[in-house]
Design brief:
16% strand, 264 residues, single chain, alpha/beta
Length: 264
């Protein structure tokens, strides 16, 4: 039984069934994660693949979640030993892997995320291990508690989905509808022709294996639809995206009635 202090709250919630909600963090300010924890969100994904966030920003976001029931996932820029190792050593509960196309690529990532004998992760004395002061208990829990989540976002991954889902240790996958659409030739759209159906096909294959699926919702209605469809991880949006959505909702009625000053 892993030490409670190193248990992964997202794993626990997914195993209990139902849907979890999360947020994509793209801004440097760790206040984003702190607010997410205060609101009772289930997870935050810190995005290192796109934008300006570096490992110092990741540490700040992880620290903002300390003591809460918020799972912290890092979308690493590449599915390589250096990015996976560093994100986990800093204390992430798991990593989100971009552009996983084959079962072999995913299996290799698991090797980087697991300590021997099931992997080749090196032993450091960083934040995840309480700076070396909790090495034994962290190592005892880490192989089981750390999540490795591939992003399914290419036509090749769609074609290889059965083999990808068969990789030992896989507990969740995440869909990138826009990139998946683009890989099929449908540019600059969220879900091109046939993509919504393909995502549901893969989600059902995953569910049959007891593997959760995740996706970002595009609106309140879409989020409700994803929950009905059985997605275990539902992103409410990104910090910037949600801010833009809210600002647009506030700006539009103001612009629709020019010349009238709003009072306080």
């Amino acid at each position: 039984m892993p030490s409670q202090s190193f248990s992964n709250p997202l794993r626990r919630k997914l195993k209990s069934g139902g849907s979890t909600i999360g947020l994509w963090a793209t801004l440097e300010s760790a206040t984003v994660t702190e607010v997410a924890a205060e609101l009772g969100l289930d997870w935050v994904c810190v995005d290192m693949e796109h934008g300006s966030l570096g490992y110092r920003d990741v540490v700040d976001h992880l620290r903002a979640a300390k003591g809460s029931d918020l799972a912290m996932i890092v979308r690493v820029p590449t599915a390589s030993v250096d990015t996976i190792k560093r994100a986990l050593d800093l204390g992430a509960h798991g990593v989100l892997l971009p552009l996983i196309r084959t079962a072999d690529e995913l299996a290799e990532a698991f090797v980087h995320a697991r300590y021997p004998p099931s992997g080749k992760r090196g032993l450091g004395h960083e934040r995840a291990l309480r700076w070396g002061m909790a090495m034994e208990s962290y190592v005892a829990a880490s192989n089981e508690e750390t999540m490795v989540i591939p992003v399914i976002e290419t036509a090749e991954a769609s074609g290889n989905i059965a083999d990808i889902l068969a990789v030992p240790g896989l507990e969740a996958i995440f869909f990138g509808p826009s990139d998946l659409s683009q890989s099929f030739g449908h540019l600059a759209v969220w879900e091109g022709p046939g993509i919504a159906e393909d995502i549901l096909r893969m989600q059902q294959l995953a569910a049959a294996r007891g593997i959760a699926s995740g996706v970002i919702g595009t609106s309140a209605d879409d989020i409700a639809r994803r929950r009905e469809q059985g997605f275990g991880m539902i992103g409410l949006g990104s910090d910037v995206g949600l801010m833009i959505r809210q600002l647009r909702a506030a700006i539009e009625p103001f612009r629709a009635a020019p010349g009238k000053s709003a009072g306080y």
